From TrEMBL, chain A:
<feature type="domain" description="ABC transporter">
    <location>
        <begin position="12"/>
        <end position="233"/>
    </location>
</feature>
<dbReference type="Pfam" id="PF00005">
    <property type="entry name" value="ABC_tran"/>
</dbReference>
<keyword id="KW-0067">ATP-binding</keyword>
<dbReference type="GO" id="GO:0016887">
    <property type="term" value="F:ATP hydrolysis activity"/>
</dbReference>
<keyword id="KW-0813">Transport</keyword>
<dbReference type="GO" id="GO:0098796">
    <property type="term" value="C:membrane protein complex"/>
</dbReference>
<dbReference type="GO" id="GO:0005886">
    <property type="term" value="C:plasma membrane"/>
</dbReference>
<dbReference type="GO" id="GO:0022857">
    <property type="term" value="F:transmembrane transporter activity"/>
</dbReference>
<dbReference type="GO" id="GO:0005524">
    <property type="term" value="F:ATP binding"/>
</dbReference>
Automatic annotation (TrEMBL), chain B:
<protein>
    <submittedName>
        <fullName>Putative ABC transport system permease protein</fullName>
    </submittedName>
</protein>
<keyword id="KW-1133">Transmembrane helix</keyword>
<feature type="domain" description="MacB-like periplasmic core">
    <location>
        <begin position="21"/>
        <end position="238"/>
    </location>
</feature>
<keyword id="KW-0472">Membrane</keyword>
<feature type="transmembrane region" description="Helical">
    <location>
        <begin position="264"/>
        <end position="295"/>
    </location>
</feature>
<keyword id="KW-0812">Transmembrane</keyword>
<feature type="transmembrane region" description="Helical">
    <location>
        <begin position="316"/>
        <end position="345"/>
    </location>
</feature>
<dbReference type="GO" id="GO:0022857">
    <property type="term" value="F:transmembrane transporter activity"/>
</dbReference>
<feature type="domain" description="ABC3 transporter permease C-terminal">
    <location>
        <begin position="274"/>
        <end position="387"/>
    </location>
</feature>
Length: 233, 394
């Protein structure tokens, strides 16, 4: 896959993105109505907006989980429209790390194997996966919890496992969808601190949130309303 | 994604739903089990019949007047001993040609009477047929030439008439004529319902006089090797047809008998296996069903895996391997229990059962194929899940 490098190429470059859904009843919903934005390498941005604003749809498009109805999206300089599903999966695997509101950890799997999961799809050997997963867990301060299962950990710890999983493949960008939404203030604070530290290490972080306090931690706020960017500060 | 990894995940998935996996496997187990057992029984029956035919001796050609086959009218024999001499000249080796005259008569010793199959034959009988003696001797040329009143008893006749007493040298009465016992055959069992242990052999000449007809029922020729059978058969039939223009003679070989019976029993085995195969198919539907449930349950997991970089192909492989694992484990258990069951049937019942390696390979292959066939639809459904929708599912 051709992959442009260097700081001159933005992590995300969206031009006139739209996304429409047809509901079961046949009603057409325009979730995004033409969004253009650039997010540079190493930026820390928050996509903010009320529920139904289209911010989650935007994040799914940025994360290459979904394809736009129209418009162009370049991720690290690569136009996603030119990629088939398998290459898109590979792009997600190598370039983007996901953090979800509800963690999405595999319940019966140890923290170590949860973190190692993205590497399975990259063909890394079992020993190599374990080694890198251990390092990632140590980086989020969970070096002592390697064999614990999600049910044996607090919400904050689970989200840190999820962040370790997002990090294990050395992505350029972390996409975090309401990462503190299911956490209490103290754990939320801890997770935000972790994301900030990672950003300082050079990884671009894009948060999606409706929490103004969380959004305020980012250096840039992109306000989305009714499928359009309302304000970008 | 590597196969080893997919296999590990599949094992884990099956272990998590242990009871459900076992119940699903049960359908496959029952199917494979019945295929293995029924094929074993069918093959066993075929082997038993083939053993009976082979037990007659090797490379035998039976020459009889008329047509042989189902529905053919019985023919009055016109062959006599001069024809036997003629066939001997045709064959070249006189010792490889023998004769049979058959009749049923009661055989009596004192007050004990047994109904036996009388077979008039000659000194060459043991050169053609495989008929070991337990005691005494075979017929001799002199016995035949001088129409001696001597008999060799089948083991069952001997036991009924004499019990534990050695019959050699003793007298039996057949149709009012007294005969001296010169031999007793080993037990050989029956061939095509002919209880050969109930036979009584006597010189063919003596038998003809006893029956009052100069005819013979058939001529048996022993070929020197398997390759000799067919040319010899054709030569004998052609020679007899030349001697009696306008009449038909048939020569049946063991190979022909084996072929006919083998075909019939092979078909029977096939039908049994097909019936058992239907239950395997039903087992496969169960696998499909449970895999669909599994895909639905794990929608979120599939969505997550896709978000983390799994391609459709990876997800497809994962679920396909799971389905194949389910059916092949079921297949192996089915094979083991089926082999055990066949051995048990063999041991405790008169039904012969014979396990063949091909039925085991086939059962394993079919169960794996069932896994692929019935796993494809659920696995494709999983592979096509939209990660956005899948992750949203709660």
């Amino acid at each position: 896959m051709p992959e442009a490098t260097g700081t001159s190429v933005p992590a995300f470059e969206a031009i006139g993105l739209t996304r429409s859904y047809r509901l079961d009843g046949g009603v057409l919903v325009d979730a995004l109505r033409g969004v253009s934005l650039r997010i540079g390498q190493g930026e820390f941005a928050a996509i903010v907006g009320p529920s139904g604003s289209g911010k989650s749809t935007l994040m799914h498009l940025l994360g290459c989980l979904d394809r736009p109805t129209s418009g162009t999206l370049r991720v690290n300089g690569v136009d996603v429209a030119t990629l088939d599903d398998a290459r898109l999966a590979d792009l997600r695997n190598r370039t983007i790390g996901f953090v979800f509101q509800s963690f999405h950890l595999l319940a019966r799997t140890s923290a170590l194997d949860n973190v190692a999961l993205p590497l399975v799809y990259r063909g890394v050997s079992r020993a190599g996966r374990r080694e890198r997963a251990k390092a990632a867990l140590e980086a989020v301060g969970l070096g002592h919890r390697l064999t614990h299962r999600p049910s044996q950990m607090s919400g904050g710890e689970q989200q840190r496992v999820a962040i370790a999983r997002a990090l294990v493949g050395d992505p350029r960008v972390l996409l975090a969808d309401e990462p503190t939404g299911n956490l209490d203030t103290r754990n939320g604070e801890e997770v935000m601190g972790l994301l900030e530290r990672l950003n300082e290490g050079g990884v671009a972080v894009v948060l999606v949130t409706h929490d103004a306090d969380v959004a305020a931690r980012a250096r840039r706020q992109i306000h989305v309303r009714d499928g359009r960017i309302e304000r970008d500060t | 994604m590597r196969t080893a990894e997919a296999l590990r995940m599949a094992v884990e998935a099956l272990r998590v739903n242990r009871l459900r996996s076992m119940l699903t496997m049960l359908g496959v187990i029952i199917g494979v089990l019945s295929v293995v057992i029924l094929v074993a029984i069918g093959t066993g029956a075929k082997n038993a019949v083939e053993k009976e035919i082979a037990g007659l001796g090797s490379n035998i050609i039976l020459v009889v007047p008329g047509q042989v086959g189902l529905g053919a009218a019985p023919t009055q024999s016109r062959l006599d001993l001069s024809d036997v001499a003629y066939v001997r000249r045709v064959v070249g080796d006189p010792s490889k040609v023998t004769v049979a005259v058959n009749s049923g008569e009661p055989v009596r010793v004192g007050r004990v009477e047994v109904f036996a199959t009388l077979t008039g034959t000659d000194e060459n009988m043991p050169h053609v047929f495989d008929r070991p003696l337990r005691r005494g001797r075979y017929l001799t040329e002199t016995d035949v030439d001088t129409r001696r009143r001597v008999v060799i008893l089948g083991s069952e006749v001997a036991a009924k008439l004499f019990g534990d007493v050695d019959p050699i040298g003793r007298q039996v009465t057949i149709a009012g004529v007294r005969f001296r016992v010169i031999g007793v055959y080993e037990t050989v069992g029956s061939t095509f319902g002919v209880a050969r242990d109930q036979e009584v052999h006597l010189p063919v000449t003596t038998a003809q006089r006893l029956i009052g007809l100069p005819r013979i029922n058939g001529i048996a020729v022993g070929a020197s090797g398997p390759d000799e059978i067919e040319p010899l058969r054709q030569r004998v039939v052609a020679a007899l047809a030349a001697r009696y223009p306008g009449e038909t003679f048939s020569a049946v070989t063991q190979t022909q008998l084996l072929g006919t019976i083998g075909t019939v029993l092979g078909m029977l085995t096939g039908v049994l296996a097909a019936i058992a195969g239907i239950s395997l198919l039903v087992g496969g539907v169960g696998v499909s069903n449970i895999m669909l449930v599994g895909v639905r349950e794990r929608t979120k997991e599939i969505g997550l895996r896709k978000a983390l970089g799994a391609r459709g192909r990876d997800i497809l492989g994962q679920f396909l391997i799971e389905a194949v694992l389910l059916t092949t484990i079921g297949g192996v258990i089915g094979i083991l229990t089926g082999v055990g069951g066949a051995l048990l049937i063999q041991a405790v019942s008169p039904v012969p059962a014979s396990i063949t390696w091909w039925s085991i390979v086939l059962a394993f292959g079919v169960s794996a194929a069932v896994g692929v066939f019935f796993g494809v639809a659920p696995a494709r459904r999983a592979a096509r899940l939209d990660p956005v929708v899948a992750l949203r599912t709660d």
